[in-house]
Each structure stands twice: as structure tokens, then as C-alpha cells.
Amino acid sequence: MSKLILPRGYSKQHTERRRKWLVEKTGFYLNNTPPDEPEKLKGIIENHVGFMQVPMAVAGPLKISGTYAHGEYYIPLCTLEGTLCMSMTRGLYLTYLSNGIKTTHIKQELSRSPMFAFKEIHETPVFTKWINKNFKQIKKAAESTTNHGKLLRIDTYIIQDSVVLDFIYNTAEAAGQNMVTIATFEACKFIKEKYQAEQLIRYYIECNFNCDKNPAYKTILQGRSHHIVASSLIKSKPFKRLLHCTPEDYVEAWSKCSRGSRLAGVVGNNMHVANALAAIYLATGQDMACVAENAVGTVEFELRNKDDLYATLTMPSISVGTVGGGTRLKQQKSNLEMLRCSGKNSSKKLAEIVCACALALELSLGGAIVSDEFAQSHAEYGRG
Length: 384
Prior knowledge:
This protein has 2 domains: 54-107 and 226-381, 3-hydroxy-3-methylglutaryl-coenzyme A Reductase, Chain A, domain 2 (Alpha-Beta Complex), CATH 3.90.770.10; 114-204, Hydroxymethylglutaryl-CoA reductase, class I/II, NAD/NADP-binding domain (Alpha-Beta Plaits, 2-Layer Sandwich), CATH 3.30.70.420. It is built from 13 helices and 10 strands. It has helices at 12-26, 84-96, 123-133, 135-143, 177-194, 217-222, 236-243, 247-264, 273-284, 291-294, 330-338, 346-370, 374-381, and strands spanning 56-65, 70-78, 101-112, 115-118, 150-159, 162-170, 200-204, 225-234, 298-304, 308-318. Strands 1, 2, 3, 4, 5, 6, 7, 8, 9 and 10 form a 10-stranded mixed sheet that branches.
């Protein structure tokens, strides 16, 4: 492996050196992409007045062996937080020296959850039976609005005089929030037309049962969008050299410090996966508000082989796509090309990359806390 180029140095010469280094490593020239034309922004923003420049960096190398993502990647990050790129690079380099990060894609399920309200509670079980019996017709109505989305099932939940219908879709390469909304709206119109019952008052297209853009325990249990698990077995020698502490000290500290999360009632169990999500989402054209629901990952650390560290991260909700929305913008599209995320299964591949990077960032922050370098690093790299 060639010498690592650290993300420090702020002159034009330093920036150009990093650009040349990136070409050497990836064959990809990161040019200064001009702004998108206003007519290309339909469906992305209203009342457009201009562009806000956000600085971009690359972290890496990520070595990954996953269900869909394989090989080495250099990760585009957009952030205003000093130390973030440096920290992720340290975590990625640490895992690189120990054979990388393994990822498994569990499933891809995005939901929209309308609620149907009735006058009397005795009507609700009759309605749920009708929904199950007529699923094929409802599926046909929903899928008539999309060429790629597939309705997998409808989960039903009775609450008092109402029924929640959780429409579960596979959205292919799109993040799919608009896709499932439009498809479910068509399905609801079909249901209202075909289900002849005087007891039916009305329906609401969304009752927030799917936890869209909300942190929730339901998401941890059932997942929403891409569900990914990442792991890395890190050898003791590079661990001590790069994180300035031992795996044993690290595991003990995590056992103690995670009590704070439990005491505070934090949804999920991680230090800051939201940082990795936000930086990669902004760089690749994702819906930034999804960070709220996606940051419910669960990280665990344990000793293996006496003095090696085994790190795992489960992220049941990673709402990313490689087509539609902000992925159409020039720079964001270019960044996806650098990640080789286009075509079939590219959204699954991107989700695995995101999860792996979040695990690397967790590892690095933990090291800074255990070695008592957390405040010092922010004082040195987090200030102008």
C-alpha cells in the first residue's frame, strides 16, 4: 500500500496534490463541476435562487468485502466539522491493515403507512381480512404508478376504531420516498372505491407508523430501507499503534460509557453514526432528513483471540438511492461514479459502503475517547 495522504494542508498546492493522488488511486479525475442549470432542478427544490458551496474531502481507503460492495473505495465527504475526515480516514486505515470490513445486506424494504378510520370498532377485523384477500389487486394498483417499485406485502395493525396498513416496498435503485407515496396513494384510492362499507369514514395517506424521518424502536426491530450489518476483526498491533490504546481497554471503556446511552434513553446504541451518514449523504445527493431515522445503529465491541478487537455495527435503516432526487445533480452524480455505484444493485452497494464507513468512524472516535485525545484533536483540527 502506498503512503497515506492525510487530509491536512490548506494551500492550492496541497489540494492539487490530493487530486493527483486520487487519480493515481482510483483513475478518477475529480474536476470542478459547474453548477446545474436551473431547469434541471425540478423535483429537487422550489424558489431556487442559487447554490451554497460546501467543502468536500475524500477519506480512505475503504477495503470492503460485502454482499454487493467489493474492493477498495475512496469516500467523498461533505462536512463543516473539522476532524471528521481525519477520523474516518484513521478508522478506515485501521481496518484496511486488518483485512478490511465485511458487510452483509439483509434486506431492502421501504414502507408507507396510511390509516383507515371507521365509525365502529367491529368493522376493523372485517377490513383487514378484505385487505389480505384482495392483496393481488391492491398490488396491481400500487405498481401501476412505477416501473421499478414492487409491493412486497401489507402488514395490518388494528388500533381502536382504525386500521394501519403498512405498505412494504422494494424500491430498486431509488431511495424511493416519493415512489412509495404515489404508489400507496393509488392503492388507497382503489381500496376506498372497492371496499363498500358505510362504516368507513376516510383514510389518511400517512399516520407516521412507518417512522419516516423519526428515530424509533420499530425501525431497530423491523428495519426501513436498506438493512446492513458490518464487522471487522482488528489485529492488536495496528490497533495499539493507530488508536494509542489496547483492545482490552477499549472494550472496558465501551462497557462503561454505553451506560450513559441507556441511562439517557438513546434510541440505538452508537456514538455518532449520524456524522458518517450526513457527510456521505450530502456528497452523494441523498435526503439529508433521513439521517434522523437512519442513525439508530447498534455497535458492539468484544475481544477475540485474546487481544484482538472484533467490531460490529448493525444499521437497520439506510435510506439511500443511486437514481432520482439529488443524485441527478452533477457533482453528486460524479461522486457516485467515483464510488462505482451505478446500475443494478448499486443502491445496495452504496448502503454497504455507508455502513462500513460508519463503523470505521465509530472505531476512531472510541480510540480518541479511550486515549484521552478527543478534546486535543478537536482543538487542533476543529478550529480555524
